[in-house]
Design goal:
The protein is of the alpha/beta class. The protein is built from 12 helices and 8 strands.
Length: 291
């Protein structure tokens, strides 16, 4: 069993000097950004740099992280050229589609990039309302893009706005689960110097059901991974649940409980298996990532 991606690191596509650092940062996935991180005047250079990135990625072989390319959104002047550039990349490179508004948006990108995973970013109130529809459109994952969403909802930036995002975040987690998708990653935490705020936000996100987070700077990776990786106590309890189920099955026991008296049901077993998948298995690679 492979585990879901916990940490994904953004890297600007027009900054090839950062590619090697991103690839060797320890992130489970790297998101090469053609959108917000690249000025309009640099888009062409950024697309050309993707070829160099792909070459550096292939050199790493099995040690390479998963890769997604965040293209410019549907309707933007750069969208079609971005998809043309992506077509020249390894087929395992996924497409991260910003400002996804509907299932039709996803269908259009899937038709233009056949065989590639599409990861939808929901960045508006309308997209959040359509979360389940988008989750059922053939995407490999959904997630929020919170800068635009905060602006539309009137939610403050930084820690002051965390409470105002709770409902939208829960909606995304629920839609992903209902559609059979992996638990989503949280959006980036913009203040790279505020590691305490990042940790608090990650803990709140984990409590809502998120599986990890995207980052904009390598210094954020350790905090994200630590919060979203089960600790030794969680792993031990999960293992005891799984072991107890196996023992009960071998004994033909119908109902069973842990030593502390907690009765075990199938939902608890599934939760325990998820904990063990994240806590004890190697990171997912580009060839088998569910995202």
């Amino acid at each position: 069993m492979t585990r879901s991606i916990i940490v994904a690191l953004y890297a600007p596509a027009d900054r090839p000097e950062r590619f090697e650092k991103a690839l060797t940062s320890g992130a489970d996935a790297v998101v090469i950004d053609l959108e917000d991180a690249v000025a309009a005047s640099r888009k062409t250079d950024a697309r050309a740099a993707l070829i160099d990135f792909a070459a550096a990625w292939e050199v790493l072989g099995e040690r390479a992280p998963a890769v997604q390319v965040r293209i410019n959104g549907i309707g933007s002047s750069a969208h079609d050229a971005d998809l043309t550039a992506v077509a020249e990349l390894p087929p395992t490179f996924g497409v991260r589609l910003p400002k996804t508004q509907s299932a039709e948006d996803v269908a259009a990108v899937r038709a233009a990039a056949p065989g590639r995973q599409v990861h939808a970013l929901l960045e508006s109130a309308l997209a959040i309302e359509r979360a389940f529809e988008i989750a059922c459109s053939g995407v490999s994952s959904i997630a929020t893009g919170e800068a635009d969403l905060r602006a539309e909802l009137g939610v403050p930036a930084g820690p002051a706005g965390e409470a105002g995002l709770a409902w939208s975040r829960s909606r995304i987690v629920n839609a992903a689960a209902a559609a059979g998708l992996p638990a989503p990653l949280m959006a980036v935490y913009a203040d790279v110097s505020d590691l305490a705020g990042l940790e608090a936000s990650c803990r709140a996100g984990r409590a809502l059901g998120f599986a990890g987070r995207t980052a904009v700077h390598p210094r954020q990776l350790e905090v994200i991974r630590r919060v979203f990786t089960p600790d030794a106590t969680e792993i031990a309890r999960a293992q005891s649940i799984v072991d107890r189920v196996r023992t009960a099955a071998a004994d033909g026991t119908g109902a069973f409980a842990l030593e502390d008296g907690t009765f075990i049901d199938i939902a608890m077993v599934r939760a325990a298996e998820r904990v063990l998948a994240v806590g004890t298995n190697p990171s997912t690679k580009a060839s088998d990532t569910p995202r």
